[in-house]
Design a protein that fits this description.
Elements: E1 8-12, E2 15-16, E3 22-26, E4 29-33, E5 41-49, E6 54-63, H1 89-108, E7 129-137, E8 139-145, E9 152-154, H2 165-178, E10 193-200, E11 207-213, H3 221-228, E12 234-241, E13 253-259, E14 263-267, E15 270-274, H4 284-298, E16 305-309, H5 315-321, E17 326-331, H6 334-346, E18 352-356, H7 359-369, E19 376-379, H8 388-395, E20 401-406, H9 409-419, E21 425-432, E22 442-448
Parallel strand pairs: 4-6, 11-12, 16-17, 16-19, 17-18, 19-20
Antiparallel strand pairs: 1-5, 2-3, 3-4, 5-6, 7-8, 7-10, 8-9, 10-11, 12-13, 14-15, 20-22, 21-22
Helix pairs in contact: 1-9, 2-3, 7-8
């Protein structure tokens, strides 16, 4: 059957894709339909036909899944954030677990018994960091992007963000309008305000507000402080300067105009100072579960040496240090390493050493030049996964245990497949739902030779 644009079809949903869309097939030709759930029969309109797949719009649900629920956010569908909000949360965990199983099969050729994703008792209001793009499209818009676009949906509050964002955004909206401050235009590169970033300490309640500025200075610093200083628990207000024509949100330079320039938070009993440029997990409750799982998978003893690649501000490193002889944290971002050293000092941890550089260069140097041989290596790379050179460097060591913390299970599967040539085998894999209501899933893998 030939499928054409604007066709109306009735189809059965066979699966859910990695972006939360339902998948139907006609003569083995996939059609992706946003908002549809496995097991449903739906009427759709074909929006676009490509060579190997098509996109359809959900017109009517003929047979509804028992897993379907009413979305509790008025912006669902328009906002590109919570793509699974129409699906029962318990079933979301099954979907995400199956994502990982599927990628291990397709990419690493592994039929593996993945543990079921660990979820939250309350999967709402969990994000401790929010990035709000700003634009002027007929009127001032502050919110989140629509799916697959840079058009912004105006959002006053968000059910997965901290409630403190609502008064912050309301005050900043008023501040921008009263002072007639120009807003950044991606097409022309002109306009001053680019993004609003908020961070909240889950256990301390401390609040940071950071404005990203397309300029080298900002004439409204005093007015900004006056607009925000009465926010509950406001600890700092910071400007970040980004004048590049890029989709990268933050620039390299920051200026503190109120407070201490960072907020403080705790993971378990460890204290961390978090600056605007620091990487810090966005879900505090699940972070404790994630790190405990990683620690359990390391199976450490007090006489072991551990390398922590992509260590960031040292969050995992400091957890490991309490259970082993020595931890070496490696990170390419110099500011993060300075934060890590300060965090170790704050927590009175002396058996953690932090080094600036590429992990694929530092680790071989530690082993083959300095004679420091790890018992376990931990990696926590960005979404793109581990650098191939790092995997080769690990492979050429004699390390027996590798614990891999991943925020993208497709690149995790790719790296597991690559490590097979060095004798590594996947032993355990535990997903942890850090990003509830979205299609993202964090996981911890244990590999052994």
């Amino acid at each position: 059957m030939e499928i054409k644009k604007n066709d109306f079809l009735e189809v059965e949903i066979l699966d859910i894709g990695i972006n939360g869309e339902g998948i139907a097939k006609i003569d083995n030709f996939p059609i992706f339909i946003n908002g549809a759930i496995t097991g449903e029969f739906v009427k759709i309109k074909i929006l676009k036909v490509n060579k190997n797949f098509a996109y359809g719009k959900l017109i009517e649900i003929i047979k509804k899944s028992e897993k379907r629920i009413e979305p509790i956010c008025e912006h669902f569908g328009a906002c590109g954030g919570c793509s699974l909000l129409h699906i029962d949360y318990d079933y979301q965990l099954d979907i995400k677990t199956n994502f990982i199983k599927s990628n291990l099969k397709k990419i690493a050729n592994l039929d593996f018994n993945v543990e079921r994703a660990m979820g939250m008792k309350n999967p709402l209001a969990y994000r401790n960091k929010a990035s709000f793009p700003i634009s002027y499209q007929d009127n001032l818009k502050i919110g989140f992007y629509k799916p697959r676009s840079h058009n912004i949906v105006n959002i006053e509050n968000c059910i997965i963000q901290s409630p403190i964002n609502e008064p912050i955004i309301a005050k900043l909206r008023k501040f921008i309008e009263i002072n007639n401050i120009s807003v950044y235009d991606e097409k022309t590169g002109k306009g001053i305000l680019r993004h609003i970033i908020t961070r909240v300490g889950n256990k301390t309640g401390e609040v940071m507000v950071c404005l990203v500025i397309n300029a080298k200075s900002f004439a409204y610093e005093n007015e900004l402080v006056l607009a925000l200083k009465d926010i509950e628990n406001i600890a700092t207000i910071v400007l970040n300067f980004n004048t590049k024509n890029t989709n990268v949100i933050l620039g390299d330079k920051t200026k503190t105009i109120y407070g201490k320039g960072y907020i403080t938070d705790y993971i378990k009993d460890l204290k961390f100072n978090i600056s605007p440029l620091s990487f810090y997990q966005i879900n505090q409750v699940q972070t404790e579960i994630l790190y405990k799982t990683a620690l359990d998978y390391c199976q450490l003893s007090k006489d072991e040496i551990v390398f922590d690649a992509y260590c960031g501000i040292g969050t995992i490193s400091l957890f490991l240090a309490k259970e082993c002889k020595m931890v070496y944290g490696i990170e390419i971002i110099e500011d993060a390493i300075e934060n890590a050293k300060q965090n170790a000092k704050e927590n009175k941890i002396e058996n953690a050493k932090f080094l600036v550089g590429k992990s694929e260069e530092v680790i071989p140097n530690l082993i083959f030049k300095e004679g420091i041989v790890p018992d376990t290596i931990v990696v926590d790379p960005p979404r793109k996964g581990c650098d191939k050179a790092l995997l080769d460097a690990i492979g050429k060591t004699e390390v027996k245990k590798l614990v891999y913390v991943s925020c993208d299970n497709s690149t995790l599967a790719r790296d597991i497949a690559y490590l097979k040539q060095y004798g590594f085998r996947l032993e355990k894999l535990q997903p942890v739902d850090m990003f509830c209501m979205t299609c993202h899933i964090e996981c911890v893998a244990q590999l052994k030779r």
